[in-house]
Specification:
With about 150 residues, the chain is α+β, with helices and mostly antiparallel strands. The chain has five helices and four strands; from the N terminus they run E-E-H-E-E-H-H-H-H.
Amino acid sequence: MYISARHIQEKKEIIKAVDDVSIDIRSCEVFGIIGFSGAGKSTLVRCINLLEYPNAGGKVTVDGVELTSLNSKQLRRQRCNIGMIFQHFNLMPSRTVLENVLYPLAYKGTKKGDKIKKTTELLKLVDLSGRIDNYPSRLSGGQKQRLAIA
């Protein structure tokens, strides 16, 4: 996957939270955004994943598809192929580890058996296969993070 963000700007009232940032993130590349509290790191990421739209002129392209030019239905479809891990993991406390990973697959046109197989593989990959019946409250911070990755 290749992500390109060009001329990302975000102004909140009178403060420029992000000022003309351009970045390229290549497949398998680890990329970090660092800065002081309030420097605009989260705002930049929210603009890249279009949870917030960058001000005029900003463009975000993922694997050759310019996301900033898509309508909401097209963007939802593209997001099915993009994973995001948030600062707060947004796990569903009333669902088990298995159910948390199965949930986003509910809207994919895949057979239930295939979904469970894929979910089981993902949980094995992040070393949580022995915890499938646990609820998030029973997991350590690191395990919750790995669950969010799965």
